[in-house]
Each structure stands twice: as structure tokens, then as C-alpha cells.
Amino acid sequence: MVQIDIFKYLNEKSFKNGDVISSLITDLYKENKYSNILFIRTLTTGNWLDDLLLDNKKINRFLYYTDNIKISAKSHQSTKIIHSNDFENELQLLNKTFDLICIDSCHEYEISLRDLKIISLFLNETGIIISHDCFPWNKTVANPFFIKGSWCGETYIAFIEFALCNPNMFYTVLNIDTGIGIISKKQINYLSNLLDKSKQEHLLYLHKNSKDPYTYFVENSKDIINSYSP
Q: What kind of fold does domain 6-228 have according to CATH?
């Protein structure tokens, strides 16, 4: 059974560069000998995934681009570059489910939520999803629209809405390395589905009505999404 010692990673000091989430994924891979792994990134996110688990040539790697964000970007040589709209179809063509899915979405709310919904369909019964940028470190980087440089957007809100709509799965968010969100279909240590539905719904209300969901999230993240902080 998969176990995660989250306090090992909470004690890490790296910030905003993918080091801690990379360590978590590498350890999970080594300890559990996953055979089916999926990495998803975009033109503006997840370049750290390109340097991860280079010894495994069977990892399915995707980079998607959107119509409103078009920049040049280098990627791992095995990465398949696709349009965002083709994402689900490309996964269906693989005709398999995954033990480990690691995603660094485009951080706009609707796309992030869509991505979580899609990848959950391809997660096997004992699999784990690891999502980056689920705890922005300030309100500026939690901007809903793309900004150059450090940007977490509203992936954190999408993560919470996914949890609200899927209460039978288990969750945590580690408030390190821009926020590491973890999802599992099976209960493992430190993950929980005993979340405060009313606070989740209130955060989504604030988001919909542009009334500072970020501050409310920071003040209530433990109840909302089972967060852990150093």
C-alpha cells in the first residue's frame, strides 16, 4: 500500500522551482515501482517535469498549448505536443490507466478543472494524482489571468472544486513549492475526504463573485482541502 511521509517534504526549504515536488514524485516512483506514468505540462508550466525520471523511457509525456497562450518552449524529446482541445482524445488513444499522474496545468481556472476531471478518468484504483501550484504564496501570483514570470493562477480553486464534486476520493495540499496537491482513490496516510463542504462552497461563491477567494482560502485551507504547512 502506498504511504507518504509528508513531513519529510514539509521540512524542505526549496521554493518555486519544482525541487520538492520532484523529490516527492521520484520517491513515490522508487518505492512503488510504478509501471504506468503520465506527465502533463503546458507551454508556461511544468518544465521541471522534463528533467524527471529520465531513466524511464516509457513515461507518457504531454505538453499542451492553448489559443490564448502561445510562446516557444523546449520540452523533453519524448514529449508529445498537442492542442489543449485534443487532450482527452489523446489519452483515450493510449487505452490504459495510470498508477501515477503528475500534472502542471495551464493555471486558468476552467482549464485546470477540466484537466483534473479528465485525468481522474484515467487513474487506476490504486493510483495517485500529483498536481502543482495548489497553494499560491501570495495574491499576486494567484491572478486568474496569465502573467509572465511566477504564476500559480487559479489551479488551487479548481482543485477544491474537484474535491467538492468528488467526495469519495482523498486529498491533501502541501503548502510548499507553490503547493503540492495530492489525490488518491484509496485512503493513504495524511490524505482525507473529511473536508468542510460549506467552506468549500463559500470559497467557490467568493470566486464566482470576485470577492477575494484567496484570503479566505489561506485562512481556512486546512478545513477546505486538508492542507499542511511547515
A: Rossmann fold (3.40.50)
